[in-house]
Each structure stands twice: as structure tokens, then as C-alpha cells.
Specification:
alpha+beta, 7-stranded mixed sheet, 21 strands, 8-stranded mixed sheet, 14 helices
């Protein structure tokens, strides 16, 4: 019992010494540990205070300033160094912050004409080419099947008015099995490819036409400027004949009406055309062979209404007097139809058309419709060509339809034969139009407006008992119009005409861009 009490008292004494640190054997180690703890604590406190002090002194740059500084670096002439994943990449910066200038607009110098001609018809057809071809501004070649004997005998002045003549390559290796056609179609279909192989520079477009095709070159350029010449484009139009389009294709450009092929498409075509032609020996002409190859290339026809094949007979007046709202680009089949101006040869009538074309090519043949409310007349102006005056009131919807002054390609008066709407020349004897054809053109000396004069064409008119003013009393119509070269830079819309006054036997009309809110309303 005593021994146990003694043992307990000894353990209690040792525990007190440990807790109070009074044990002699542990006193040096305890002091060392305390000193180490104090040193570490002091070091931590000092380091923390220094870190906080440096953070408060740091200036934080706004995000917008960072973006601005990066832009300055990118736009500078110095290379930008990027460090990522222990690798260094050098990216050359742009030398200028401004975008590259756009390419120059398409001009006549960027176009090369390929004209399909016949040695047999060259003597007469070359007169059409002289009307529109300008050797000092254009590039082009006439492609014949053989040399022309008279070519060497032509005087130098005439030769300088025409494009150079080329002889097409031999095509006898290509099969031709259409009994109704002529194998010259193969030669003509290869004109674009042969022109490309001449290696001309700075070419954007190859334009195809026949020797009886007349181009309005300025309007051709206006059409081509709408499209990117670096892409593949096949641009043209259809036949006026519904049956022709069915027999051949509604996706085919008719070569007589003219069509344009962009340079990249011509290159692609040249690489496969000979193989393509061999696959279609039964086709009739050059146009459908060209379209067949375009189909294999996957390029559709881009339709422009100003290319005119004119697969019709008779008088073109109804078509020209109600021209679609599109720039006039070509006329074709001029040996088939009547002269566009009466009492003139075909060539002379086309030369007369060059007068208004030089003054305002964009507005050539464009129709305007208005009313003389006092006299109850309907007036239709085909600028630069003709003016029609009708007794009574016709709606604009009816006036914009071509009147059937022509026959279809099969010489029949069949109004269902066309790929567009037409109307009869007149539905009542009193509504037969009084026609005034353009005779002279000029520019007003003070207003700089074009002044075109139209003279009445005397034809027998049926007796009319309507009690209203008679347009037959007029002898002249004078039209004033400001030139508008940017007409087709805007959305398509007909110009408006306004009857100004009637002086003696002359009616004065102004043609201009429609005013705000102006409408061709039936009276």
C-alpha cells in the first residue's frame, strides 16, 4: 500500500517538471525549438509584407489599352514575336493598315471579241462589223473557214476598220452526224478556245458573236461589270422563239445574239472541249455544242435580256419599241428582218442608230410611258428610236408588251410561238398607233440635255369617228433627255416621260428619272 503511494507521487513529480519545463535534461532543446519557430515566423511576416507592398505599387493596364497596344504592334512594320510552349514563332505584320485597292473596272481593253464569219458572205457581212467595231479601243478577231480572195485587194482604209482575220483550225477529225446542219458548227464552237490560245494578255472576257451581230459595246461593258471575271461565267440569252428553245435548250446562249465567257471558264473549256465535242456528233449547231460542254463543266447560263438573237421575220418595230428594262447589248439576224428605219438600207439604218448611242448608250431603246391627259392620248417613247401616240388610254401593263409586227421563225403569225407576252398592233381602228421615227440627234447648248427629233412616218390610217384630238395632225415630236451613264448602276426601272407642250405641229416631251412618288397611272 505504501509502495503504491510512493510510485504515484514520483510519476506526478515527473509530469509537473515536463509541463513546467523545469527538467534539467530537456531545457536546451526546448529553447532551440522556440528560437527556430520565432525565426521562421518573422521571415514569413517580412516576406508577406513585402509582397503586399509590391502588389499595391503595380499599375494594372486597362483591357482597352492592351487591345490598342496589340493593334499598334500588328500594324507596325516590326515582326510580332509569339512565345508559346517554349517555342518562338515570327509572324510578319502587314505593312499598311489600309485595305488593298480594288481592281480596276472592266473596260473594253479587257474584252476580246471572237466573230464567227463565212467566206461566202464576208463581202456583205463585214459592213455590219464596221458599224460597231472600233480598232483603236477594241480587240477581236474574225474567224473564217478559209482565206478570202478579196481580202488582199481591199484598200488599207477599209482593212483598218475591221478586226484581224484568222483561219480556223482543221476540224475534220471531229464526227458530225446531223443531216440538217453543217459541220462548220464544230469550227465555230471552238472559236473561244482558239482565241484563248492566241495568248493575249490582260483578258477578262471572251465575247462571241456572228458577222451579222451588231454590238452596243458600252452596254456590253455595263453588263460584264456586274460579274466577277475571276469566276466562271457563261452569259447570254435565249431565242425569242419558244419552239427554238424547246428544240435546243432553255439553258443555252444563242451565239448570234452573242454571249460572254469569263477567262477562267475559257481556260477550263479549252482543256476539255475537244473531248466534249466528240461526245456530241448528233447536235445541230455550235451553240448547243458549247452549252453541252458548259453542262459538263457544271456552269449554267446567266441570262441577260439585252442579248438579242431575233429569231423572227418581218419588222422588228414591236420588239424594239417595247424593249425590256435592260441595256441593249446586241442585234442579230439583220439580213433576215426589215431595216429598223423605213426607207433606208439595213446598214444605213444601223448607222443612224449610232447617233443616239454616242449621246446616251445606256438609255438607247429604253421605253417610257406617259399620257397627254388633255388630249386623251397614250404616249410611248423608245428613246433614240421611235415615238408612238395612241388615241385613248392604254395601261402600262399593256404598253410594255411588244406588238406583233413580226412573224415567228417559221414565218407564221402565231402569238403562242414566243417565249414572252405579245399584244396585237391594235384592237380597234381608232387605236392604230401614229409612229414617229428618230431622224436627228443633238445636245442643247445651254442645258446639255440630249435633243432627239422624231418625224412622222406617213401610212394610211383608218377612218376614226372618235371625238378627240387627232395625232395625225402632228409632224414632229421632240424629246429632251439628260444623259444618264449610271442608269444601270441603280435597280432596274423605266424612266418617266412627261408631255410638256404642243407648238404648232410639234409635241415636246421630256424623259427623265421618275420623281419621288411618280407613277404611270391610267387617267
Amino acid at each position: 500500500m505504501k509502495s503504491n503511494n510512493h510510485k504515484d507521487s514520483s510519476e506526478k513529480l515527473m509530469l509537473d517538471r515536463i509541463l513546467t519545463g523545469s527538467g534539467s535534461s530537456n531545457r536546451p532543446g526546448s529553447k532551440l525549438m522556440v528560437l527556430l519557430l520565432l525565426l521562421v515566423s518573422a521571415t514569413y511576416v517580412v516576406y508577406t509584407l513585402q509582397l503586399i507592398s509590391n502588389s499595391r505599387a503595380c499599375h494594372v493596364e486597362p483591357f482597352s489599352a492592351v487591345v490598342r497596344r496589340l493593334n499598334d504592334i500588328v500594324n507596325s512594320s516590326q515582326p510580332l514575336i509569339l512565345l508559346q510552349s517554349n517555342q518562338t514563332a515570327v509572324i510578319e505584320s502587314h505593312t499598311s493598315s489600309s485595305p488593298p485597292p480594288p481592281p480596276p473596272k472592266t473596260e473594253l481593253r479587257h474584252v476580246v471579241f471572237g466573230i464567227a464569219a463565212s467566206a461566202r458572205l464576208w463581202k456583205q457581212r463585214k459592213e455590219y462589223i464596221k458599224i460597231w467595231y472600233k480598232p483603236d479601243k477594241m480587240r477581236g478577231y474574225v474567224w473564217l473557214e478559209k482565206p478570202v480572195k478579196r481580202l488582199d485587194q481591199e484598200n488599207d482604209e477599209e482593212t483598218n476598220l475591221l478586226p484581224p482575220v484568222k483561219i480556223s483550225a482543221d476540224t475534220s477529225r471531229f464526227p458530225y452526224k446531223n443531216k440538217q446542219g453543217h459541220r462548220s458548227a464544230i469550227r465555230i464552237s471552238r472559236i473561244v478556245t482558239e482565241t484563248l490560245k492566241l495568248g493575249l494578255r490582260d483578258v477578262r472576257w471572251f465575247v462571241m458573236g456572228d458577222d451579222d451581230t451588231v454590238f452596243v459595246a458600252e452596254n456590253l461593258i455595263r453588263v460584264l461589270r456586274k460579274y466577277d471575271h475571276n469566276q466562271m461565267y457563261y452569259i447570254g440569252s435565249l431565242s425569242e422563239s419558244h419552239l427554238q428553245n424547246i428544240y435546243f435548250s432553255y439553258g443555252m446562249a444563242y451565239g448570234g445574239g452573242g454571249f460572254a465567257v469569263s477567262y477562267p471558264l475559257a481556260v477550263a473549256l479549252s482543256k476539255m472541249q475537244d473531248r466534249c465535242i466528240k461526245r456530241y456528233p448528233a447536235l445541230y449547231g455550235s451553240d448547243d455544242r458549247m452549252q453541252a460542254c458548259m453542262a459538263e463543266l457544271g456552269v449554267p447560263l446567266t441570262k441577260e435580256l439585252g442579248f438579242h438573237q431575233y429569231d423572227v421575220y418581218g419588222n422588228l418595230f414591236g420588239l424594239l419599241a417595247a424593249h425590256p428594262v435592260a441595256p441593249l447589248v446586241t442585234l442579230h439576224h439583220l439580213d433576215v428582218v426589215e431595216p429598223i428605219f423605213p426607207n433606208m438600207t439595213r446598214v444605213d439604218s444601223l448607222k443612224r442608230l449610232q447617233g443616239p448611242a454616242m449621246l446616251d448608250s445606256a438609255g438607247l431603246m429604253q421605253q417610257s410611258i406617259c399620257y397627254d391627259k388633255r388630249r386623251k392620248w397614250t404616249v410611248s417613247v423608245s428613246w433614240g428610236y421611235a415615238v408612238q401616240i395612241f388615241r385613248g388610254v392604254f395601261s402600262a401593263r399593256e404598253m410594255e408588251m411588244p406588238s406583233r409586227t413580226f412573224l415567228n421563225w417559221y414565218r407564221r403569225a402565231d402569238y403562242t410561238a414566243y417565249a414572252f407576252n405579245t399584244r396585237p398592233v391594235s384592237r380597234h381602228p381608232c387605236q392604230k398607233p401614229f409612229v414617229f421615227y428618230m431622224t436627228t440627234t443633238g445636245v442643247h447648248p445651254t442645258t446639255n440635255m440630249t435633243v432627239t427629233r422624231y418625224e412622222s412616218y406617213p401610212v394610211a390610217q383608218p377612218e376614226c369617228r372618235w371625238k378627240m384630238a387627232n395625232p395625225g395632225d402632228l409632224r414632229t415630236v421632240t424629246v429632251y433627255k439628260k444623259p444618264d451613264p449610271h442608269l444601270w448602276d441603280r435597280s432596274p426601272r423605266r424612266n418617266c416621260c412627261r408631255v410638256k407642250s404642243k407648238k404648232n405641229n410639234t409635241l415636246e416631251i421630256s424623259v427623265a428619272v421618275c420623281k419621288e412618288g411618280e407613277v404611270v397611272e391610267v387617267m
